[in-house]
Structure formats: structure tokens, C-alpha cells
Amino acid sequence: MGSLLKSLSITFAVIIVVVAPGTPARTSRQNEQSPGTPATKAAHHVKQYTIEQFLDTTSIFGSSFSADEAQVMFTSNKSGIFNAYTVPVRGGEAAPLTHSTKESTFGIGYFPHDNRILYTYDRGGNENNHLYVLGADGQEKDLTPGDKVKAIFLKWTFDGDAFYYMTNERDPKFFDVYKMQTADYQRKLVYENTTGLQPSDISNDEKYIAFGKPNTTSDSDVLLYTVATKELKNITQHQGDIANAPQTFDVHSKWFYYTTNEESEFAYVSRYDLATGRKEVVEKAPWDVMYTYFSHNGKYRVVGVNEDAVTRITVYDTATGKPIPLPTFPQGEITNVDFSRSEKQMAFYFNGDRSPSNLHVLDLEGKNVARLTDALNPEIDPKDLVEAQVVRYKSFDGLEIPALLYRPYQADAEAKAPAIVEVHGGPGGQSRHGYQGLMQYLVNHGYVVLMVNNRGSSGYGKTFFTADDGRHGHEPLWDCVEAKKYLSSLDYLDANRIGILGGSYGGYMVLAALTLQPDVFDVGVDFFGISNWIRTLESTPPYWESFKKALYKEIGDPVKDRAKLMKVSPLFHADNIRKPLMVLQGANDPRVIKPESDEIVAAVKKRGGIVEYIVFADEGHGFTKKKDEIAGDKAVLEFLDKYLRNKPATGARNQ
Question: What is the mean pLDDT of residues 572-596?
């Protein structure tokens, strides 16, 4: 449901600056629908499924080859909570490697030379992840102890005898870089971080460390640290707003690759010669290049492009510079490409709107592909699920807004459907193609869903990306109001039954809609959304210190901009909430703390408004336990059925 911070990719709350950005590229409009054009056509009777059936679908991610390359580790919530699993590379029964029943546990990888595994988890969603090893004796060892310590894995050394990681144990605000030996877990400090740089990659010869330096959400630098001399050099010095993001060293430690949008709307790949300082452009696309990296010995280079909310992967043979053929699938995307150390095998995921992510392994010598998982609950027929369609609509000022439209099979002009405008997290996130369990659940039960990429979303160029800076509660919200007008133009939809739903920043947009535009939407569903920007900005986790300047520029300074922030903080306008509201919150959320939800709920109750509130005691910023997801999603549908579906339909259209 989103991360609360723009241009950040947060895995276990690691803060890494990502190039994001503006005006949609125009390579193809084949998926776009004009207003009123059906996104799907009813072709069969649709079976409706329970939330238990939807969530019996398994979430799967991550991959790591075992030392003998006979097994692949991945993370799955098959048991109802995330754990690490392993499966033979040619297929077979997956077996759990960890057996947590309390804390969601995420696999990092097999050790390079033996079958020990490295993994991570926090306590109840507090995001203070530690690194753990499961030894040959089956015993777990905490490698990064400390009540308030947060630790993040970086990479294995090239020889596999050690690994790098970062932790904020010395100073809660900053992450230092350590190297730990795999033999005895002895460690040494490699870089003491006192300025909030964000560690990214270490060269194979271990002479250099790459860092990202966020200046604002649209401006950032790449710095290289020479370990021997302790010299720190900014290799992307520039004027104006340019987003530079560190990527990877080449295998020979000759080049450093990074993405930049210098003199471009979209991010592209450039590289820096470590010996001479020479720079050269490596690869451009008419969309943002999101990342690039190499296989272990440098035989292959992977590039991911964000093409109109779909990831397009290219794998280059570095000797020839030509792409290698990849497996072909129906609609969807290949993601998360990972190579074995021998470079003979390639693990990847395939994901589509009607197909949850499934792990595959490609034998690069024999070219045969093995599908190792089957994530979709076999009780669900994929034909009953809906393929999202890319649409674009004009906002109040003529700016074109991209969105993903899900039309239920059962919706038509004679049986007009209710609808939901869904707003992603961030700010600066992006609604993308791919399996969305809650969205498919709502669509399966007859709701049209429009997932909006309002101005400020990633993936559409830097002009579009920065168009929301300092304007939250204004233009980005108005884009969502225009989304309702777009939906109202569809002949299979009841314009008098349209709600809004979102999480994190998207939850803020829900609350902002109900307070600042109180007559537009008929209901709101808020997953852990911000109600008071002043408190949220003052209560960010200490390890966000390096990004505070950028966050304040994006949203506002809680001291200097206090009056401005009060004007767009829903809590101070709660008396305007006249439509039914549902709020869902994790008790241990460190990003949007529980009082954000407590107080908006209390304010609605005080004036006798309709509000339903669910708090999960063992969750944080996002719900990772199936029991909580089931309870929450079931309650959402019941709430929408009660206050939106069963609202009297008049057939009138709001213009």
C-alpha cells in the first residue's frame, strides 16, 4: 500500500534513492482506452470467491542458489506467515528452511560455500530488522543484536568468504558499513557514516564503496569512497535538479554504473571510469531505466525499464553486447532476475494481473525452463480474474493522468457497478501491472477499480514526478477528483456510488478527499494514512535522518511550514467528514504511527459520524500475516457493500 516517502525503494525499510519521474512517453497507446470504451467484455459467468480463497494464494519473492546450485531459496507466506523455503532447481516439493509462527521471516540467501542460510526479521513490524544465520546444527544466531538496532544486508564478497552489511547500532540516525567473515562471524568496521550517505555497492576488489546522497526527492548524487585512502568523491557534481542513483561496479572493478536523468526527462544508464574519471552513456530508453547489474562473473548484464507501469527486462551477453533470448509468456512481466555463481542458471519471476509471481529457473546451456512454484490458489480460475487496462484521462488543468482500470465482467449498462478510486503510496510511488489480491477480490465482487497515478508518481518523467512538490492536498488530490469524473463517463458504472481507497500516502489522500473535498466520494477506506503531517514529519524513524531535508522540501517543514501543513492535514478538518470512513492500522507502525489513525477516528466519532476502525496488534506499516490480511480485506468488502454498493442508485451522473 505504499511507503510514505517519495523516490524511495524500501525493502525492510532500507532507504535507497531511486530515480523517478514526468510526462508520459508516447511509444505506444495500444493499451489505452478512451472514456466509455469497455476495458473487458463479459465472456462467461464469473464465479465469486471468498477472501480466504484469494489469500490462499501464496506471496513468493526472492531467490538464491545453493552452493551446489541444486536448490533455490525463496520467501513465501504459504504457512500464513513469511518464511524461507527451498526447492530443487528442476522442480519438486518446496521445503521450509525457517519455521517462524510469530514473526514474518525473509530469506536473504544461501552462504556461497555451504548450506547455511542468512535471513532477516523484525519484531511485530517495528522495522528493526536483524540479520540471522541458521547454522548446520539447525540453531539460529543473531548476528546483529540490540533492541533498537536495524541491520541491512549489502552483498557477499566476490570470493564468498565474507559479506558486507550496514547497521545503525553506533548512531540510530546513520548506517555504518561492516564486513563479516563467514567462517567465524568476526567483523570489522569499513566505513563510519556520519553524514547520512546511503551505502549501495562494494567493488569486487573491495577497494571502493558506492553511496547515494539524497539532496531532494528529485535531486541526488553518487559518491565513491576509496577504502585505502578514505577519500570520498562526488562523481556526479551538477547544477540544478538531477537525480543520480548508484547501481553497480563491473566485475573487474574498472567501471561504476549509475542511472541519471541529466538533460533528459527519463533516467538512463551511464558509467564512470574508476581510473580516469571518464563518463559515458551506456543505455537510454523512452522510459525510466530502473536498474542495471551484472551476473557474478560478469557474463551477463541485466537492465530493467519501467515501461508504462510494466517492467521490461533485457539480459545482455556482455561479450557480444547483444540481448539473450528470454522465455515468452502471456501478458505479464519477468522480474527479479538472479544468476547462479557459475552463470549456468538464471532464476526469475513471472507476474501478471491474473497471475501472482511464480519462481522459474532457466538453464542457460540447455535453454529449458522449470516453473518451481504455483502461487495461485487452484480453487481460483484465472479466467474469473480481470486484466487491467492502461487508461489516461485529462485532469482539471489538462495534464494527462495515467491509470489502471479493472472492469468486472458482470458490469454493463444494465447492471451499473459501484467503483473505487485507489491511490498508491509514496508520495512518488506508482500503480503498476501485476497481481493485486485485494483489487482482484473487489473486482471479483463487482467493483470497478481505477488505480490512479496522480501527478508526482514515478515512471512518467521528471516533470511529472516533481509536479506535486509542496502541493500535497491540492493538485495531486484534484487529480483523484478528476478520476471520479472519468469513471462517471463510463456507461457501465453508477456515478453515484464511487469511493476512494489507499494506504500510507494513499491513505492520506483518502482522508484528504473526505475532509478537503468532502462532497466528492461516497466512502473512504484508509490503510494507515497520515492525518497530521506535522506529527508524522516530527516522528519519522531516526534512520530517516539523511532524508529529512528532501522530505521537508517535498511535504513541508513542520516548524517553518506549520500553518501550511495544518491546512492540508485532515485531522484539523475532521468536522468536514460526512461520508462513511474505514481505517485500518498496524499498532507497531514506525512510519505512520498509531495516533495518526486513533485521532482521526476519535474526531469522527465525536461528531457522530460513521467510522469503523481495525487495529492489528502484531503488524507495522503493511500487513504481512495472512490472518490479519483476511480479517482486514473481508472487513473492507463488508464495509463497501454496506455503505457503497447498497447506497441507492439514482442513475444520475456527476459531471
Answer: 98
Positive or negative, the CA dihedral 63, 125, 472, 397 is: positive
CA distances from 98 to 66, 117, 137 (A): 15, 9, 13
Pick the CATH number of 8-53+380-531+552-586+595-616+625-645 from 3.40.50.1820, 1.10.1060.10, 3.40.50.2300, 3.30.70.360: 3.40.50.1820
Per-residue pLDDT reduced to its tens digit, 597-655: 999 999 999 999 999 999 999 999 999 999 999 999 999 999 999 999 998 655 443 33
- pTM exceeds cut of 0.90: yes
What is the rounded end-to-end Cα distance, in angstroms, of the chain?
29
Q: What is the DSSP string of 233-294?
A: EES---SS--BEEEEEE-TTSSEEEEEE-TTSSS-EEEEEETTT--EEEEE--SSEEEEEEE
Q: Rounded to the nearest 5 degrees, what angle is found at the Cα of 250, between the Cα atoms of 244 and 255?
A: 60
**High-pLDDT (> 70) share of the chain, %:** 92
The candidate with the shortest Cα–Cα distance to 636, out of 475, 464, 449, 490, is 449
Would you list the DSSP string of 291-323? EEEE-TTSSEEEEEEE-SSSEEEEEEETTTTEE
Number of C-beta neighbours around residue 275 at 10 A:
8
3-state helix, strand, coil in the chain (%, to 5): 15, 35, 50
Provide the 3-class DSSP secondary structure of residue 566: helix
Element counts in the chain: helices (H) and strands (E): 10, 38
* CA-to-CA separations, 493 to 322, 386, 453, 652, in angstroms, rounded: 48, 16, 21, 11
Phi-psi group of 459: left, alpha or beta (phi > 0 → left; psi -120 to 50 → alpha; rest → beta): left
> Are the CB atoms for 39 and 449 separated by under 8 Å?
no
Name the residue among 130, 96, 100, 33 with its Cα closest to residue 406.
Answer: 33
**Across 244-248, average pLDDT:** 98
